[in-house]
Specification:
Distance between the termini: 70 Å
CATH topology: Rossmann fold
Strand order of the largest sheet: 3-2-1-4-6-5
Number of strands: 8
Helix content: 40-55%
Strand content: 5-15%
CATH class: Alpha Beta
CATH superfamily: HUPs
Number of domains: 1
Shape: globular
Number of helices: 11
Order of helices and strands: HHEHEHEHHEHEEHHHHEE
Structural class: alpha/beta
CATH architecture: 3-Layer(aba) Sandwich
Amino acid sequence: MENTQNQPTIAERAEASIRKKFHRELFSKFAHAINEYELLQENDKVAVCISGGKDSMLMAKLFQELKRHDKFPFELVFLVMDSGYDTHHRQMIENNAKKLNIPITIYESDIFESVFNIEKSPCYICARMRRGHLYSKAKELGCNKIALGHHYDDVIETILMGMLYGGQVQTMMPKLKSTNFQGMELIRPMYQIRESDIIHWCKYNGLEFIQCACKFTADTAADKTSSKRLETKNIIKMLKETNPFVESNIFRSVENVNLATIIAYKDKNGTHKFLENY
């Protein structure tokens, strides 16, 4: 739409803020993660998976900014899966994409309906099903990668949740090869971006995005996984009051694993106990 009053559009303001005010907090960390974890190669075709929330919408804008730099050739598809959104949420996603100049490709699935009557871990099952559908559609569109909008806070919460509630040490990886879709890979380019900076960017630009729009969380109590994540988030917040480095320490803990001090660990060949090499 032509801007007759020479005022910047919502998209132009959002893009300018990524280049200037939030360059260090957002774009620099986005580019750094892509380089450090080798998330993008020449001639990749990436399905940027957009749920309609703040994280994935910002990820789309960051990919557009990276594309503008034109360092090497790659393609983008901005993929929205309508898992059963109501009219309001569907319209909100479409309106935000239009305002931000994100050329989305929308397709329908019935995932929300499929998990509605599942009592145990419906959010976990929904997420797994969504990922499978996204892989399938992305591959159909000629993509070799899907990009998800998980950020730094998601990573450290996952690490701590695994220890506190799962009795294991593991992390949310910056990239994964698909085991069910040959040649496909999942990447998380917002891996080093803080959620507080994403929220700040949204507020600065006057942007509002959907939260979880599924029928289950709208009609019933939140899934236990979601409540445990909120509980973990609050634990980290409490610990930060006395230790300002607690978040970075949690993040770094999975980069500094000393196998000589681990009682047992697992790999593709099974479980190995310290007694094997004692």
